[in-house]
Amino acid sequence: xxxxxxxxxxxxxxxxxxxxAGYMLTQEKEQFVASTxxxxxxxxxALPAAFNGLPGASKADFADGKPRLLNIWxxxxxxxxxxxxxLEALQKQGVDIVGIAIRDRPEDVANxxxxxxxxxxxxxxxxxxxxxxxxxxxxxxxxFVIDGKGIIRHQHIGDIRPEDIPTLLxxxxxxx
Length: 176
Prior knowledge:
Elements: H1 2-25, E1 46-47, E2 57-58, E3 68-73, H2 78-92, E4 97-102, H3 106-116, E5 120-126, H4 130-134, E6 142-146, E7 152-157, H5 165-174
């Protein structure tokens, strides 16, 4: 009898762990990863131009009293292609967008902008992702609202979709 009872232990353990996994999969998950940099000043940086068409980017570009977007992107990033029309729409509404191209070559940046449009006033080249990591960005694309004093006020993770534009405009208005 005792030997027969031990035969059920593996099945009971399996049922327990399967039930636990099923329970965890049905629980509400936090979709937003809050940055520890929100409310903090941009780190010091001065990046060279990503290609010959626009100037590079630095922390000083964000300290003139005007809020703007800082968009972290790359020519090799498929979601960056998807967000290109939304960045153009924001730029047409008067939003100043500074870009940082991550691990990119000048010719690839130029090809991307020629193909998908150029909403940027400046683009810095972050060849080793140093600035990207310093501001708490975990991937591309990622967009930050920076106030006129160089303080990070909002972080948008992932590509900007049409439904995200009102939120970004509201965050820029709050950053004034």
